[in-house]
Design brief:
Helices cover 39% and strands 22% of the residues. By secondary structure, it is of the alpha+beta class. It has one domain (6-111). The strands form three sheets. A three-stranded antiparallel beta sheet has the order 1-6-7. The chain has a two-stranded antiparallel ribbon with strand order 2-3. The N and C termini lie far apart (48 Å).
């Protein structure tokens, strides 16, 4: 793995600090090690990209998408699909894993200007649409 210091990685895990890594270098084992409070509740098992059967975890961590949604990463297969989607659109971005975060939606962040700009534009579009609906008297209840 380029740009990945294994010693630094494990040191950060013991200190429960954030970890910045290139998305292409992120592995499912790294997620399990980074978020020790998660990945305990097995939901089902299925074939993984490495050709072996693996567990899908119900208590997974969610990683951010550019459309202000998120993707639950319950197994290696879900991670590889997520990586393909993000890298295919934005290239090999940096991702910041934040195990110390209390909020489920803030456990990871993509550190890429193009990604953030896209996410901001979509967010503004959603807000504009909601505002127009409210002006028409429509309720979001």
């Amino acid at each position: 793995m380029n740009n990945f210091n294994l010693h630094s990685y494990f040191k950060k895990q013991y200190l429960n600090e954030s970890l910045e890594v290139n998305l292409k270098d992120l592995t499912f084992d790294m997620l399990i090690d980074t978020y020790p409070e998660n990945y305990k509740n097995i939901h089902f098992s299925r074939m993984q990209p490495d050709g072996k059967k693996g567990n899908y975890y119900r208590d997974s961590v969610s990683l951010p998408n550019w459309d202000d949604s998120s993707t639950s990463i319950g197994d290696m297969s879900a991670l590889e699909t997520y990586k393909e989607k993000i890298i295919g659109r934005f290239g090999d971005v940096k991702i910041l894993l934040k195990p110390e975060s209390e909020d489920w939606f803030d456990k990871a962040e993509i550190l890429n200007d193009k990604f953030q700009d896209t996410k901001d534009k979509i967010g503004k579009g959603k807000a504009s649409s909601i505002k127009k609906d409210m002006e028409r008297g429509w309720s979001i209840d």
